[in-house]
Automatic annotation (TrEMBL), chain B:
<dbReference type="GO" id="GO:0016887">
    <property type="term" value="F:ATP hydrolysis activity"/>
</dbReference>
<keyword id="KW-0813">Transport</keyword>
<dbReference type="InterPro" id="IPR017871">
    <property type="entry name" value="ABC_transporter-like_CS"/>
</dbReference>
<dbReference type="GO" id="GO:0015807">
    <property type="term" value="P:L-amino acid transport"/>
</dbReference>
<dbReference type="InterPro" id="IPR027417">
    <property type="entry name" value="P-loop_NTPase"/>
</dbReference>
<comment type="similarity">
    <text>Belongs to the ABC transporter superfamily.</text>
</comment>
<dbReference type="Pfam" id="PF00005">
    <property type="entry name" value="ABC_tran"/>
</dbReference>
<dbReference type="InterPro" id="IPR003593">
    <property type="entry name" value="AAA+_ATPase"/>
</dbReference>
<dbReference type="InterPro" id="IPR052156">
    <property type="entry name" value="BCAA_Transport_ATP-bd_LivF"/>
</dbReference>
<keyword id="KW-0547">Nucleotide-binding</keyword>
<dbReference type="GO" id="GO:0015658">
    <property type="term" value="F:branched-chain amino acid transmembrane transporter activity"/>
</dbReference>
<dbReference type="GO" id="GO:0005524">
    <property type="term" value="F:ATP binding"/>
</dbReference>
<dbReference type="InterPro" id="IPR003439">
    <property type="entry name" value="ABC_transporter-like_ATP-bd"/>
</dbReference>
<keyword id="KW-0067">ATP-binding</keyword>
<protein>
    <submittedName>
        <fullName>ABC transporter ATP-binding protein</fullName>
    </submittedName>
</protein>
<keyword id="KW-0029">Amino-acid transport</keyword>
Length: 289, 240
Protein backbone atom coordinates (compact mmCIF):
# COMPACT_ATOMS: atom_id res chain seq x y z
CA UNK A 1 0.00 0.00 0.00
CA UNK A 2 2.62 2.56 1.07
CA UNK A 3 4.68 1.47 -1.89
CA UNK A 4 1.81 2.18 -4.30
CA UNK A 5 1.28 5.64 -2.84
CA UNK A 6 4.97 6.46 -2.98
CA UNK A 7 5.20 5.36 -6.61
CA UNK A 8 2.04 7.29 -7.42
CA UNK A 9 3.39 10.46 -5.83
CA UNK A 10 6.68 10.15 -7.64
CA UNK A 11 4.99 9.60 -10.99
CA UNK A 12 2.25 12.14 -10.26
CA UNK A 13 4.74 14.93 -9.62
CA UNK A 14 6.31 14.43 -13.06
CA UNK A 15 2.91 14.20 -14.68
CA UNK A 16 1.61 17.29 -12.92
CA UNK A 17 4.55 19.30 -14.28
CA UNK A 18 3.82 18.14 -17.81
CA UNK A 19 0.13 18.93 -17.41
CA UNK A 20 0.91 22.38 -15.98
CA UNK A 21 2.81 23.33 -19.11
CA UNK A 22 0.06 22.06 -21.37
CA UNK A 23 -2.70 23.77 -19.43
CA UNK A 24 -0.80 27.06 -19.29
CA UNK A 25 -0.51 27.13 -23.07
CA UNK A 26 -4.14 26.13 -23.46
CA UNK A 27 -5.47 28.74 -21.08
CA UNK A 28 -3.48 31.57 -22.63
CA UNK A 29 -3.94 30.83 -26.31
CA UNK A 30 -6.70 28.27 -26.57
CA UNK A 31 -4.17 26.03 -28.27
CA UNK A 32 -3.98 22.31 -27.53
CA UNK A 33 -0.29 21.68 -27.92
CA UNK A 34 -0.13 18.24 -29.53
CA UNK A 35 3.65 18.58 -29.59
CA UNK A 36 3.95 18.70 -25.81
CA UNK A 37 5.15 15.10 -25.56
CA UNK A 38 7.78 15.71 -28.22
CA UNK A 39 9.01 18.74 -26.29
CA UNK A 40 9.37 16.52 -23.25
CA UNK A 41 11.38 13.97 -25.26
CA UNK A 42 13.51 16.76 -26.71
CA UNK A 43 14.27 17.98 -23.20
CA UNK A 44 15.37 14.48 -22.23
CA UNK A 45 17.74 14.27 -25.17
CA UNK A 46 19.23 17.69 -24.40
CA UNK A 47 20.07 16.61 -20.86
CA UNK A 48 21.43 13.33 -22.22
CA UNK A 49 23.66 15.18 -24.68
CA UNK A 50 25.00 17.57 -22.07
CA UNK A 51 25.59 14.94 -19.39
CA UNK A 52 26.71 11.90 -21.39
CA UNK A 53 28.21 13.37 -24.57
CA UNK A 54 29.73 16.51 -23.07
CA UNK A 55 30.39 15.03 -19.65
CA UNK A 56 28.96 17.97 -17.72
CA UNK A 57 27.10 17.71 -14.38
CA UNK A 58 23.44 16.71 -14.35
CA UNK A 59 22.28 20.10 -13.08
CA UNK A 60 23.88 21.76 -16.11
CA UNK A 61 21.98 19.35 -18.34
CA UNK A 62 18.74 20.23 -16.61
CA UNK A 63 19.35 23.95 -17.09
CA UNK A 64 20.25 23.36 -20.73
CA UNK A 65 16.96 21.49 -21.27
CA UNK A 66 15.04 24.33 -19.68
CA UNK A 67 16.73 27.00 -21.77
CA UNK A 68 16.65 25.13 -25.09
CA UNK A 69 12.97 24.29 -24.70
CA UNK A 70 12.06 27.80 -23.57
CA UNK A 71 13.71 29.23 -26.67
CA UNK A 72 12.08 26.59 -28.85
CA UNK A 73 8.67 27.34 -27.31
CA UNK A 74 9.08 31.08 -27.79
CA UNK A 75 10.09 30.63 -31.41
CA UNK A 76 7.24 28.21 -32.16
CA UNK A 77 4.76 30.68 -30.68
CA UNK A 78 6.14 33.74 -32.38
CA UNK A 79 6.76 32.35 -35.84
CA UNK A 80 4.08 29.66 -36.14
CA UNK A 81 1.16 30.00 -33.72
CA UNK A 82 0.92 33.79 -33.57
CA UNK A 83 0.68 34.28 -37.36
CA UNK A 84 -1.82 31.44 -37.71
CA UNK A 85 -4.01 32.76 -34.88
CA UNK A 86 -3.88 36.23 -36.41
CA UNK A 87 -5.03 35.03 -39.82
CA UNK A 88 -7.41 32.23 -39.01
CA UNK A 89 -10.49 32.36 -36.83
CA UNK A 90 -10.97 28.59 -36.79
CA UNK A 91 -9.73 26.45 -33.91
CA UNK A 92 -8.85 23.59 -36.27
CA UNK A 93 -6.05 25.67 -37.76
CA UNK A 94 -4.03 25.73 -34.57
CA UNK A 95 -4.79 22.05 -33.94
CA UNK A 96 -3.43 21.15 -37.36
CA UNK A 97 -0.41 23.33 -36.77
CA UNK A 98 0.23 21.69 -33.39
CA UNK A 99 -0.05 18.22 -34.94
CA UNK A 100 2.32 19.29 -37.70
CA UNK A 101 4.83 20.54 -35.14
CA UNK A 102 4.61 17.21 -33.32
CA UNK A 103 5.56 15.31 -36.50
CA UNK A 104 8.24 17.85 -37.31
CA UNK A 105 9.81 17.56 -33.85
CA UNK A 106 9.75 13.76 -34.13
CA UNK A 107 11.73 14.11 -37.35
CA UNK A 108 14.16 16.58 -35.77
CA UNK A 109 14.69 14.28 -32.79
CA UNK A 110 15.34 11.35 -35.12
CA UNK A 111 17.89 13.35 -37.12
CA UNK A 112 19.61 14.97 -34.18
CA UNK A 113 19.59 12.19 -31.59
CA UNK A 114 18.73 8.97 -33.44
CA UNK A 115 16.16 6.33 -32.60
CA UNK A 116 17.99 4.63 -29.73
CA UNK A 117 16.77 4.67 -26.15
CA UNK A 118 19.08 6.99 -24.22
CA UNK A 119 19.68 7.35 -20.54
CA UNK A 120 21.91 9.13 -18.08
CA UNK A 121 23.91 7.27 -15.41
CA UNK A 122 22.37 7.27 -11.94
CA UNK A 123 22.93 10.62 -10.26
CA UNK A 124 22.85 9.10 -6.76
CA UNK A 125 23.22 5.50 -5.71
CA UNK A 126 21.52 3.48 -3.06
CA UNK A 127 18.02 2.41 -2.20
CA UNK A 128 15.75 3.72 0.48
CA UNK A 129 14.13 0.88 2.37
CA UNK A 130 11.55 1.57 5.05
CA UNK A 131 11.01 -1.78 6.68
CA UNK A 132 10.22 -3.38 3.32
CA UNK A 133 7.11 -1.21 3.16
CA UNK A 134 8.49 1.47 0.87
CA UNK A 135 11.44 0.59 -1.28
CA UNK A 136 12.60 3.36 -3.53
CA UNK A 137 15.98 4.15 -5.07
CA UNK A 138 17.40 7.43 -3.82
CA UNK A 139 17.61 8.86 -7.32
CA UNK A 140 13.85 8.45 -7.76
CA UNK A 141 13.27 10.19 -4.46
CA UNK A 142 15.56 13.04 -5.49
CA UNK A 143 13.84 13.44 -8.87
CA UNK A 144 10.41 13.28 -7.21
CA UNK A 145 11.40 15.95 -4.70
CA UNK A 146 12.85 18.13 -7.47
CA UNK A 147 9.60 17.83 -9.43
CA UNK A 148 7.51 18.80 -6.41
CA UNK A 149 9.84 21.71 -5.77
CA UNK A 150 9.39 22.89 -9.35
CA UNK A 151 5.60 22.68 -8.98
CA UNK A 152 5.79 24.84 -5.84
CA UNK A 153 8.04 27.38 -7.57
CA UNK A 154 5.70 27.49 -10.58
CA UNK A 155 2.63 28.08 -8.41
CA UNK A 156 4.45 30.79 -6.49
CA UNK A 157 5.51 32.43 -9.72
CA UNK A 158 1.99 32.39 -11.18
CA UNK A 159 0.43 33.72 -7.98
CA UNK A 160 2.86 36.31 -6.74
CA UNK A 161 4.97 37.64 -9.61
CA UNK A 162 3.89 40.46 -11.89
CA UNK A 163 4.43 38.28 -14.96
CA UNK A 164 2.47 35.39 -13.49
CA UNK A 165 -0.39 37.68 -12.57
CA UNK A 166 -0.44 39.09 -16.09
CA UNK A 167 -0.65 35.60 -17.55
CA UNK A 168 -3.54 34.69 -15.27
CA UNK A 169 -5.27 37.91 -16.26
CA UNK A 170 -4.74 37.14 -19.94
CA UNK A 171 -6.20 33.66 -19.47
CA UNK A 172 -9.27 34.96 -17.64
CA UNK A 173 -10.16 37.95 -19.81
CA UNK A 174 -7.98 38.85 -22.76
CA UNK A 175 -9.67 42.17 -23.49
CA UNK A 176 -9.53 43.33 -19.88
CA UNK A 177 -5.87 42.28 -19.71
CA UNK A 178 -5.17 44.41 -22.77
CA UNK A 179 -6.85 47.34 -21.06
CA UNK A 180 -4.47 46.92 -18.12
CA UNK A 181 -1.58 47.34 -20.55
CA UNK A 182 -0.67 43.67 -20.97
CA UNK A 183 0.95 43.16 -24.36
CA UNK A 184 -0.91 40.08 -25.58
CA UNK A 185 1.67 39.03 -28.18
CA UNK A 186 4.50 39.27 -25.68
CA UNK A 187 2.79 37.41 -22.85
CA UNK A 188 1.47 34.68 -25.14
CA UNK A 189 5.06 34.09 -26.16
CA UNK A 190 6.29 34.06 -22.57
CA UNK A 191 3.53 31.63 -21.62
CA UNK A 192 4.32 29.27 -24.46
CA UNK A 193 8.02 29.40 -23.62
CA UNK A 194 7.27 28.63 -19.99
CA UNK A 195 4.99 25.70 -20.91
CA UNK A 196 7.61 24.23 -23.23
CA UNK A 197 10.27 24.79 -20.57
CA UNK A 198 8.28 22.73 -18.07
CA UNK A 199 7.98 19.89 -20.59
CA UNK A 200 11.72 20.06 -21.21
CA UNK A 201 12.50 20.04 -17.48
CA UNK A 202 10.47 16.88 -16.93
CA UNK A 203 12.28 15.28 -19.85
CA UNK A 204 15.56 16.21 -18.21
CA UNK A 205 14.42 14.83 -14.86
CA UNK A 206 13.10 11.53 -16.17
CA UNK A 207 15.99 10.77 -18.51
CA UNK A 208 17.95 9.87 -15.38
CA UNK A 209 15.40 7.26 -14.34
CA UNK A 210 13.61 5.80 -17.32
CA UNK A 211 15.61 7.26 -20.20
CA UNK A 212 13.98 8.66 -23.31
CA UNK A 213 13.35 7.47 -26.82
CA UNK A 214 11.78 8.82 -29.94
CA UNK A 215 8.56 6.86 -29.52
CA UNK A 216 7.64 8.41 -26.17
CA UNK A 217 6.44 11.75 -27.55
CA UNK A 218 3.00 10.84 -28.81
CA UNK A 219 1.94 8.71 -25.82
CA UNK A 220 3.17 11.41 -23.44
CA UNK A 221 1.00 14.00 -25.22
CA UNK A 222 -1.99 11.69 -24.87
CA UNK A 223 -1.30 11.23 -21.16
CA UNK A 224 -0.99 14.99 -20.74
CA UNK A 225 -4.40 15.48 -22.41
CA UNK A 226 -5.87 12.85 -20.07
CA UNK A 227 -4.56 14.76 -17.08
CA UNK A 228 -6.00 18.09 -18.05
CA UNK A 229 -9.30 16.48 -18.96
CA UNK A 230 -9.45 14.86 -15.52
CA UNK A 231 -8.55 18.08 -13.73
CA UNK A 232 -10.25 20.58 -16.02
CA UNK A 233 -8.46 22.31 -18.88
CA UNK A 234 -6.92 25.71 -18.26
CA UNK A 235 -6.90 25.50 -14.48
CA UNK A 236 -3.66 25.24 -12.54
CA UNK A 237 -5.17 23.27 -9.67
CA UNK A 238 -6.80 20.98 -12.23
CA UNK A 239 -3.51 20.18 -13.93
CA UNK A 240 -1.92 19.31 -10.61
CA UNK A 241 -4.88 17.20 -9.53
CA UNK A 242 -4.99 15.49 -12.94
CA UNK A 243 -1.27 14.74 -12.84
CA UNK A 244 -1.34 13.19 -9.39
CA UNK A 245 -4.57 11.27 -10.09
CA UNK A 246 -3.16 9.76 -13.28
CA UNK A 247 0.11 8.97 -11.50
CA UNK A 248 -1.80 7.25 -8.72
CA UNK A 249 -4.05 5.35 -11.13
CA UNK A 250 -1.03 4.10 -13.02
CA UNK A 251 0.72 3.10 -9.86
CA UNK A 252 -2.32 1.22 -8.56
CA UNK A 253 -2.98 -0.31 -11.97
CA UNK A 254 0.56 -1.59 -12.41
CA UNK A 255 0.44 -3.32 -9.03
CA UNK A 256 -3.14 -4.51 -8.79
CA UNK A 257 -3.96 -5.23 -12.41
CA UNK A 258 -0.63 -6.68 -13.49
CA UNK A 259 -1.97 -10.16 -12.93
CA UNK A 260 -4.51 -9.63 -15.70
CA UNK A 261 -2.00 -8.44 -18.28
CA UNK A 262 -1.27 -4.99 -19.58
CA UNK A 263 -4.72 -3.52 -19.09
CA UNK A 264 -3.99 -0.54 -16.84
CA UNK A 265 -4.58 2.06 -19.53
CA UNK A 266 -7.65 0.25 -20.81
CA UNK A 267 -9.16 0.58 -17.36
CA UNK A 268 -8.03 4.20 -17.04
CA UNK A 269 -9.60 5.14 -20.38
CA UNK A 270 -12.85 3.39 -19.54
CA UNK A 271 -13.02 5.09 -16.14
CA UNK A 272 -12.26 8.46 -17.70
CA UNK A 273 -15.02 8.09 -20.28
CA UNK A 274 -17.57 7.44 -17.57
CA UNK A 275 -16.18 10.32 -15.49
CA UNK A 276 -16.27 12.79 -18.38
CA UNK A 277 -19.83 11.77 -19.24
CA UNK A 278 -20.82 12.80 -15.71
CA UNK A 279 -18.52 15.81 -15.41
CA UNK A 280 -17.38 17.02 -18.84
CA UNK A 281 -15.57 20.08 -17.48
CA UNK A 282 -13.30 17.93 -15.30
CA UNK A 283 -12.77 18.22 -11.55
CA UNK A 284 -11.89 21.91 -11.31
CA UNK A 285 -13.13 23.00 -14.74
CA UNK A 286 -14.17 26.62 -14.87
CA UNK A 287 -16.42 28.36 -17.38
CA UNK A 288 -13.49 30.21 -18.90
CA UNK A 289 -11.98 26.95 -20.13
CA UNK B 1 -9.25 75.31 -21.38
CA UNK B 2 -7.03 72.90 -23.26
CA UNK B 3 -8.41 69.64 -24.52
CA UNK B 4 -6.90 66.47 -23.13
CA UNK B 5 -8.75 64.50 -25.79
CA UNK B 6 -9.99 65.42 -29.25
CA UNK B 7 -11.76 62.82 -31.31
CA UNK B 8 -11.86 64.22 -34.83
CA UNK B 9 -14.34 62.97 -37.37
CA UNK B 10 -13.71 59.27 -36.82
CA UNK B 11 -15.26 56.42 -38.75
CA UNK B 12 -15.21 52.86 -37.46
CA UNK B 13 -16.37 49.65 -39.13
CA UNK B 14 -17.09 46.10 -38.06
CA UNK B 15 -16.34 44.09 -41.18
CA UNK B 16 -18.29 46.11 -43.73
CA UNK B 17 -20.89 47.64 -41.47
CA UNK B 18 -20.22 51.06 -40.07
CA UNK B 19 -20.63 51.72 -36.36
CA UNK B 20 -19.36 55.35 -36.37
CA UNK B 21 -19.60 57.75 -39.28
CA UNK B 22 -17.80 60.98 -38.59
CA UNK B 23 -17.89 61.43 -34.82
CA UNK B 24 -16.12 64.34 -33.11
CA UNK B 25 -15.83 64.71 -29.36
CA UNK B 26 -13.70 66.92 -27.11
CA UNK B 27 -12.85 66.43 -23.47
CA UNK B 28 -11.20 69.33 -21.68
CA UNK B 29 -8.67 69.02 -18.88
CA UNK B 30 -10.46 68.17 -15.61
CA UNK B 31 -13.87 67.92 -17.23
CA UNK B 32 -16.48 65.17 -16.98
CA UNK B 33 -18.15 64.57 -20.32
CA UNK B 34 -21.15 62.30 -20.77
CA UNK B 35 -21.90 60.30 -23.88
CA UNK B 36 -25.47 59.13 -24.03
CA UNK B 37 -27.45 57.22 -26.62
CA UNK B 38 -29.58 54.14 -27.18
CA UNK B 39 -28.28 50.60 -27.26
CA UNK B 40 -26.27 50.07 -30.45
CA UNK B 41 -25.73 53.78 -31.12
CA UNK B 42 -21.95 53.32 -31.10
CA UNK B 43 -20.97 54.57 -27.65
CA UNK B 44 -18.73 51.62 -26.82
CA UNK B 45 -17.22 51.78 -30.28
CA UNK B 46 -15.97 55.31 -29.55
CA UNK B 47 -14.26 54.03 -26.40
CA UNK B 48 -12.82 51.05 -28.27
CA UNK B 49 -11.37 53.46 -30.82
CA UNK B 50 -9.81 55.63 -28.11
CA UNK B 51 -8.28 52.67 -26.25
CA UNK B 52 -6.87 51.12 -29.42
CA UNK B 53 -9.00 47.98 -29.25
CA UNK B 54 -10.48 48.71 -32.72
CA UNK B 55 -8.74 50.46 -35.63
CA UNK B 56 -10.21 53.56 -37.26
CA UNK B 57 -11.34 53.68 -40.84
CA UNK B 58 -10.69 57.41 -40.99
CA UNK B 59 -10.36 60.47 -38.82
CA UNK B 60 -7.91 60.93 -35.98
CA UNK B 61 -7.69 61.05 -32.21
CA UNK B 62 -5.46 63.51 -30.37
CA UNK B 63 -4.49 63.04 -26.74
CA UNK B 64 -2.57 65.80 -24.99
CA UNK B 65 -2.03 67.29 -28.42
CA UNK B 66 -0.46 64.15 -29.89
CA UNK B 67 -1.72 61.49 -32.23
CA UNK B 68 -3.24 58.55 -30.33
CA UNK B 69 -4.82 56.47 -33.09
CA UNK B 70 -2.54 53.75 -34.37
CA UNK B 71 -0.87 53.22 -30.99
CA UNK B 72 -1.24 49.80 -29.38
CA UNK B 73 -3.71 49.24 -26.55
CA UNK B 74 -0.89 48.67 -24.07
CA UNK B 75 0.91 51.89 -25.10
CA UNK B 76 -2.30 53.84 -24.72
CA UNK B 77 -2.65 52.68 -21.11
CA UNK B 78 0.93 53.71 -20.46
CA UNK B 79 0.15 57.17 -21.79
CA UNK B 80 -2.47 57.63 -19.10
CA UNK B 81 -5.81 56.43 -20.43
CA UNK B 82 -7.71 53.83 -18.42
CA UNK B 83 -11.02 52.28 -19.30
CA UNK B 84 -13.66 50.56 -17.24
CA UNK B 85 -15.23 48.35 -19.89
CA UNK B 86 -18.89 47.61 -20.40
CA UNK B 87 -20.02 44.64 -18.32
CA UNK B 88 -17.18 45.33 -15.84
CA UNK B 89 -14.87 42.55 -17.05
CA UNK B 90 -13.39 41.79 -13.65
CA UNK B 91 -10.82 38.99 -13.59
CA UNK B 92 -13.27 36.50 -12.11
CA UNK B 93 -10.88 34.01 -10.49
CA UNK B 94 -8.55 36.60 -9.03
CA UNK B 95 -8.82 38.13 -5.60
CA UNK B 96 -9.82 41.76 -5.23
CA UNK B 97 -6.20 42.42 -4.38
CA UNK B 98 -4.87 40.87 -7.59
CA UNK B 99 -7.52 42.61 -9.67
CA UNK B 100 -6.40 45.94 -8.23
CA UNK B 101 -2.73 45.11 -8.70
CA UNK B 102 -3.43 44.29 -12.35
CA UNK B 103 -4.65 47.87 -12.66
CA UNK B 104 -1.13 49.01 -11.78
CA UNK B 105 0.43 46.62 -14.28
CA UNK B 106 2.10 49.40 -16.27
CA UNK B 107 3.62 51.01 -13.18
CA UNK B 108 6.94 50.09 -11.57
CA UNK B 109 7.05 52.58 -8.70
CA UNK B 110 6.41 50.08 -5.90
CA UNK B 111 6.08 52.48 -3.01
CA UNK B 112 3.70 54.74 -4.88
CA UNK B 113 1.60 51.80 -6.04
CA UNK B 114 1.06 51.03 -2.33
CA UNK B 115 -0.13 54.61 -1.83
CA UNK B 116 -2.58 54.41 -4.72
CA UNK B 117 -3.82 51.06 -3.43
CA UNK B 118 -4.40 52.59 -0.03
CA UNK B 119 -6.33 55.51 -1.52
CA UNK B 120 -8.50 53.17 -3.61
CA UNK B 121 -9.28 51.04 -0.55
CA UNK B 122 -10.15 54.17 1.39
CA UNK B 123 -12.41 55.37 -1.41
CA UNK B 124 -14.18 51.99 -1.62
CA UNK B 125 -14.17 50.52 1.89
CA UNK B 126 -16.07 47.46 0.68
CA UNK B 127 -13.00 46.46 -1.30
CA UNK B 128 -10.94 46.43 1.86
CA UNK B 129 -13.45 44.10 3.50
CA UNK B 130 -13.36 41.81 0.48
CA UNK B 131 -9.64 42.23 -0.16
CA UNK B 132 -8.77 38.52 -0.36
CA UNK B 133 -12.08 37.35 -1.77
CA UNK B 134 -12.41 36.02 -5.30
CA UNK B 135 -13.97 38.65 -7.57
CA UNK B 136 -16.64 36.34 -9.01
CA UNK B 137 -18.15 35.87 -5.54
CA UNK B 138 -19.02 39.56 -5.18
CA UNK B 139 -22.20 41.37 -6.19
CA UNK B 140 -22.40 43.33 -9.42
CA UNK B 141 -22.18 46.63 -7.53
CA UNK B 142 -19.11 45.55 -5.61
CA UNK B 143 -17.47 44.34 -8.80
CA UNK B 144 -18.21 47.68 -10.43
CA UNK B 145 -16.50 49.49 -7.54
CA UNK B 146 -13.60 47.11 -7.92
CA UNK B 147 -13.09 47.69 -11.64
CA UNK B 148 -13.32 51.46 -11.16
CA UNK B 149 -10.67 51.06 -8.47
CA UNK B 150 -8.67 48.87 -10.83
CA UNK B 151 -8.72 51.64 -13.45
CA UNK B 152 -7.63 54.21 -10.85
CA UNK B 153 -4.66 52.02 -9.92
CA UNK B 154 -3.00 53.12 -13.16
CA UNK B 155 -3.31 56.76 -12.01
CA UNK B 156 -4.90 57.76 -15.31
CA UNK B 157 -5.16 61.28 -16.66
CA UNK B 158 -8.20 60.28 -18.68
CA UNK B 159 -10.74 57.82 -17.32
CA UNK B 160 -13.25 56.17 -19.67
CA UNK B 161 -16.30 54.59 -18.05
CA UNK B 162 -18.58 52.39 -20.15
CA UNK B 163 -22.03 52.09 -18.59
CA UNK B 164 -21.00 51.73 -14.96
CA UNK B 165 -24.67 51.59 -13.94
CA UNK B 166 -25.49 48.65 -16.21
CA UNK B 167 -27.06 45.78 -14.29
CA UNK B 168 -26.50 47.41 -10.92
CA UNK B 169 -29.17 47.64 -8.21
CA UNK B 170 -30.81 51.13 -8.35
CA UNK B 171 -29.67 52.00 -4.85
CA UNK B 172 -26.05 51.29 -5.81
CA UNK B 173 -26.31 53.38 -8.99
CA UNK B 174 -26.41 56.43 -6.73
CA UNK B 175 -23.30 55.27 -4.90
CA UNK B 176 -21.50 54.84 -8.19
CA UNK B 177 -22.60 58.28 -9.39
CA UNK B 178 -21.28 59.78 -6.14
CA UNK B 179 -18.03 57.90 -6.54
CA UNK B 180 -17.57 59.32 -10.04
CA UNK B 181 -18.18 62.87 -8.78
CA UNK B 182 -15.71 62.30 -5.94
CA UNK B 183 -13.07 60.91 -8.29
CA UNK B 184 -13.43 63.90 -10.58
CA UNK B 185 -13.05 66.21 -7.57
CA UNK B 186 -10.12 64.43 -5.85
CA UNK B 187 -7.99 63.17 -8.69
CA UNK B 188 -6.37 65.05 -11.53
CA UNK B 189 -8.43 63.16 -14.04
CA UNK B 190 -10.74 63.95 -16.93
CA UNK B 191 -13.69 61.61 -17.36
CA UNK B 192 -15.60 60.43 -20.39
CA UNK B 193 -18.72 58.70 -19.10
CA UNK B 194 -20.80 56.50 -21.40
CA UNK B 195 -24.29 55.82 -20.09
CA UNK B 196 -27.72 54.66 -21.11
CA UNK B 197 -28.90 56.03 -17.79
CA UNK B 198 -29.00 59.54 -19.27
CA UNK B 199 -30.50 61.17 -16.22
CA UNK B 200 -27.65 60.03 -14.02
CA UNK B 201 -25.02 60.86 -16.64
CA UNK B 202 -26.35 64.37 -17.29
CA UNK B 203 -26.64 65.10 -13.58
CA UNK B 204 -22.96 64.45 -12.87
CA UNK B 205 -21.28 65.75 -16.04
CA UNK B 206 -20.25 69.20 -17.28
CA UNK B 207 -21.05 68.60 -20.92
CA UNK B 208 -22.68 65.85 -22.92
CA UNK B 209 -23.00 64.39 -26.39
CA UNK B 210 -26.01 62.44 -27.57
CA UNK B 211 -25.17 59.75 -30.06
CA UNK B 212 -27.63 58.29 -32.53
CA UNK B 213 -26.73 55.47 -34.96
CA UNK B 214 -23.11 56.37 -35.35
CA UNK B 215 -23.17 60.15 -35.32
CA UNK B 216 -23.57 62.94 -32.81
CA UNK B 217 -27.17 64.16 -32.77
CA UNK B 218 -26.84 66.79 -30.05
CA UNK B 219 -24.26 68.21 -27.73
CA UNK B 220 -23.99 70.90 -25.11
CA UNK B 221 -23.97 71.80 -21.48
CA UNK B 222 -25.37 68.93 -19.40
CA UNK B 223 -27.69 71.07 -17.32
CA UNK B 224 -29.19 72.65 -20.41
CA UNK B 225 -29.54 69.31 -22.15
CA UNK B 226 -31.40 67.96 -19.14
CA UNK B 227 -34.17 70.49 -19.94
CA UNK B 228 -33.95 70.16 -23.70
CA UNK B 229 -37.21 68.86 -25.12
CA UNK B 230 -35.50 66.68 -27.71
CA UNK B 231 -33.34 65.03 -25.04
CA UNK B 232 -36.33 64.61 -22.77
CA UNK B 233 -38.28 62.92 -25.52
CA UNK B 234 -35.51 60.70 -26.81
CA UNK B 235 -33.40 59.85 -23.77
CA UNK B 236 -35.09 60.73 -20.53
CA UNK B 237 -38.66 59.60 -21.20
CA UNK B 238 -38.54 56.07 -19.92
CA UNK B 239 -36.63 56.81 -16.80
CA UNK B 240 -38.75 59.52 -15.22
N1 LIG C 1 -17.75 43.03 -32.44
C1 LIG C 1 -18.72 43.52 -33.25
N2 LIG C 1 -18.92 42.97 -34.45
C2 LIG C 1 -19.88 43.43 -35.29
N3 LIG C 1 -20.67 44.47 -34.99
C3 LIG C 1 -20.52 45.07 -33.81
C4 LIG C 1 -19.54 44.63 -32.88
N4 LIG C 1 -19.60 45.40 -31.78
C5 LIG C 1 -20.58 46.30 -32.01
N5 LIG C 1 -21.14 46.11 -33.22
C6 LIG C 1 -22.22 46.90 -33.83
O1 LIG C 1 -21.82 48.25 -33.88
C7 LIG C 1 -22.87 49.11 -33.49
C8 LIG C 1 -22.45 49.96 -32.32
O2 LIG C 1 -22.19 49.13 -31.22
P1 LIG C 1 -21.68 49.68 -29.83
O3 LIG C 1 -20.60 50.66 -30.06
O4 LIG C 1 -21.37 48.53 -28.96
O5 LIG C 1 -22.98 50.43 -29.31
P2 LIG C 1 -23.39 50.95 -27.87
O6 LIG C 1 -22.22 50.83 -26.97
O7 LIG C 1 -23.84 52.35 -28.06
O8 LIG C 1 -24.51 50.07 -27.40
C9 LIG C 1 -24.07 48.21 -33.19
O9 LIG C 1 -24.91 48.19 -34.30
C10 LIG C 1 -23.46 46.87 -32.95
O10 LIG C 1 -24.33 45.83 -33.35
MG1 LIG D 1 -22.02 49.73 -25.30
Amino acid sequence: MEQIIANGLYLGAQYALIALGLTLIFSLMNVLNFAHGQMYVFGGFVTYTVVVQLGLPFIVGLFASAIVLAIMGAAIEKFLFAPVIRRSKRDESTMLLAAGIAFFLDAVILLAFGEKQRGVPKIVNGVFNWDMRIIMPYDRILIGVLAILLIVVFIGFMNYSRTGRAMRALAQDKMAAQLMGVNVARYSMIGFALGAMLAGLVGGLLVTITGVNLGMGGPTSVKAFLMIMIGGAGVISGAIAGGFILGMMESVGLTVLSAYGDITYLVIFATLMVFLAVRPQGLMGKPWG
Amino acid sequence: MTNILSVENIELYYDHIYALKGVSIDVAEGETVALIGANGAGKSSILRAITGLRPLKSGRILYQGERLDGASASDIVRRGISMVPEGRRAFPLMSVKDNLLMGAFTRTDKAEIEQTLESVLTRFPRLRERYHQQASTMSGGEQQMMVIGRALMARPKLLLLDEPSLGIAPKLVQDIARAIVAISRDEKVSILLVEQNSRMALSISNRAYALSTGSIALSGNSRELMNDDRIKAAYLGGEL
